[in-house]
Amino acid sequence: MQNRRLNLGILGYPLFHSLSPRLYQTAMETLGMEGEYHLFPIPPVPEGAEQIQSLLQRVCSGELQGLNVTIPHKQAVIPWLDKLTPTASAIGAVNVLFLNGDRLTGDNTDAPGFSADLRRYIDRPAGSALVLGAGGAARAVVFALAQSGWRVRVCARRAAQAAGLARDLQHAGLHPISAAPLTADVLQEFGDCRLIVNATPVGMTPQIDASPWLEGLPFPAGALVYDLIYKPPETKLMLQARAAGLQAVSGLGMLVEQAVLAFERWTGIRPEGSSMTEGRGSETSSAVFSETITNY
Ligand code: NAP
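Above: the input record for the complex with NAP. Below: its predicted structure, written as tokens.
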């Protein structure tokens, strides 16, 4: 694989601000691999259906070795795939496509990417977690948490969306997932939680003065606040949490880890080609990608 020219890309819409080309180009350069990472901005189905199918055909023919998939196509592409990994199937969304044998396969590396980064801060399931938002990223995060032993409550401004997520992900063997509306009363009820994850876009550039956590509402003592947002690198939620004495981190680590795993799916190689032990390999890879984003 190292001598072969890589042809990768991302399917999404719009893609003006995608960091992915920088991430993967840096990985290829670091590994001494040649190749390109293309943007494929294709409008949502049904308008983009034909274009998507012809792009997927390029993966099937081997012309493209891999694709990332992002909003709004993470669920829409599934009917055209031959196979889903168990993780993608459980979550009901894909962010990585590749050819496995002759089968076009969809995987979800957001969930293990989140878990890998979370392990830097919390090394074992620690009870209850609160997830704000019930969209695509929340599905991956809730799956990752419930699978590794957290009791998860998902809160969304549309209670029905939270309930739907909890119902869809309540697979046998997963720890309990409950759903509630995103209100101050509900957030206050959850005073014993050890982890709060923001999976809404509230606070993302350019709305940097917004936070999903109501002003003045106390935080659960000792909780880690994990904001999936990585632009800006410090969100208002993170600043609120730190002012209350809590540890707060951004979604940059997750972004990096899901990209590391995607690259590995496509090439069989983790960026840096470093140790196969997860901790050391991930840290080295993160350093490469983080440098890229800082300079972006
Ligand atoms: P999504 O599918 O659109 O879901 C967003 C969720 O947030 C929905 O439940 C939505 O509710 C809710 N929401 C939106 N605006 C809100 C508001 N003003 N108040 C309360 N709830 C609100 O988006 P997504 O793909 O899950 O992404 C969510 C965030 O995660 C984004 O900031 C994204 O950049 C980030 N993300 C980070 C990574 C990473 O690697 N770090 C990966 C994926 C996503 P409605 O449906 O009612 O609008």
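Notes for the reader.
The longest strand covers residues 6-12.
Residues 182 and 284 are 37 Å apart (CA to CA).
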